[in-house]
Amino acid sequence: MSPLVQPVLRQLGLWQTFLAQGFAPSHRTLTSWDQAGLTSSELLLEARGPSWRVDRRAFDGWLTAAGCRAAECVDAKVCHLAREADGWSIVCDDGNSHSARLIIDATGRARALADRQGSRAKAQDRLIAAYAEATTSGPAAPELLVEAFDDGWWYTMALDQGRRAFACMTDADLARGLGLNTPDGWRAALARTQFVSALGSRIIRLEQPRLIPAGSRYAATTAGFHFLCAGDAASAFDPISGHGVVKAMRSGVFAAYAACDCLARGDAAALDRYGAWIAREAAAYATTLSEHYGSVSRWSERPFWRRRRADAPSRNPSSSLLEQ
To answer: Per its UniProt record, what Gene3D superfamilies does this chain match (predicted)?
Structure first.
């Protein structure tokens, strides 16, 4: 996770308890992107602090528990959602009905409530992750390693107990052609890298690769009548940004501000301001993402890179998304 997680967790009053979870700081990221060699982004002296290597399941569970301590938790699935004069009525699969003055959809890419209301998100690309975890031999290098190749890019990082995460990021149609959902196809794509494959050569046992949608998406409507989308339900970022979790948490904070202004202060424009903020954030991200992908010229005629260079600005990017 990005160093920017620290101010968000401080704002939520959770920074010290986050540190107590024992997640490991990461002071360096290794990249092979627009040049063939390997470069290092040192975070040891970074004023914002280190990045963090977290067990995502443990992190999500910890954050969920903190949220449930601050609010009433109803463990049920929404079956029906209907607008009323001053809010919403909700029917859940446990047979109970509820009323709400305002709805926040924080169900991630599933957009379980927003899509039900006819608000669709527009996919900006077809990026997909062919993700697999593996048991490896020898000492584990803890740094995040990112490496571009002709059909996309890879990342790998150490987990725990001799395990590593590997992911090949490419477009969905290219993933099918490469057979990335099969061990043989996945390994063949891995062999086309230099640095990630060196770590992959130490794989003892490989789990079945899984294809996971990872493309950029943006909801044209993130706010409506007493309704907000937060996190990936509002906009989903490419993993190369390194900001997905922090972005989602930050949008949750701003969604809470908007809800409070709307309900407690009677500010009718609060939800529209939130929607405008989401739109500005998504536009700035799209520009920076285009610059970052556009900086790679080694495989300019390959479909993955050609698609991303089509709308890339002609100027060179001043900084990498991974360093922001």
So the answer is: 3.30.9.100, FAD/NAD(P)-binding domain
Residue keyed to tokens 């922001």: 324
Q: Whole-angstrom Cα distance, residue 247 to residue 279?
A: 13
Residues 6+ apart with CB under 8 A from 157: 53, 142, 143, 144, 145, 164, 165
Task: Let me know whether 222 and 309 are in one domain.
Answer: yes
pLDDT value, residue 131: 97
> What's the 3-state SS for the chain?
CCCCHHHHHHHCCCHHHHHCCCCEEECEEEEECCCCCCEEEECCCCCCCCEEECCHHHHHHHHHHHHHHCCCCCCCCEEEEEEECCEEEEEECCCCEEEECCEEECCHHHCCCCHHHCCCEEECCCEEEEEEEEEECCCCCCCEEEEEECCEEEEEEECCCCEEEEEEEEEHHHHHHHCCCCHHHHHHHHCCCCHHHHHHCCEEEECCCEEEECCCEEECCCEECCEEECHHHCEECCHHHCCHHHHHHHHHHHHHHHHHHHHHCCCCCHHHHHHHHHHHHHHHHHHHHHHHHHCCCCCCCCHHHHHHHCCCCCCCCCCCHHHC
Percent of the chain whose predicted confidence (pLDDT) is above 90: 68
CATH number at residue 308: 3.50.50.60
Whole domain around residue 24: which residue ranges? 1-73
Are residues 60 and 156 both part of a single domain?
no
Average pLDDT over residues 151-163: 91
Helix axes 270-294, 244-264, angle to 10 degrees: 160
Of 214, 242, 257, which residue constitutes the final position of a domain?
214
| Chain CA centroid to CA 187, Å | 25
Q: How many domains does the chain contain in total?
A: 3
Assess whether 222 and 302 both reside in one domain: yes
| Residues in CB range of 118: below 8 A, 6 or more apart | none
**pLDDT value of residue 116:** 84
Q: Are strands 227-229 and 103-105 parallel, antiparallel or unpaired?
A: parallel
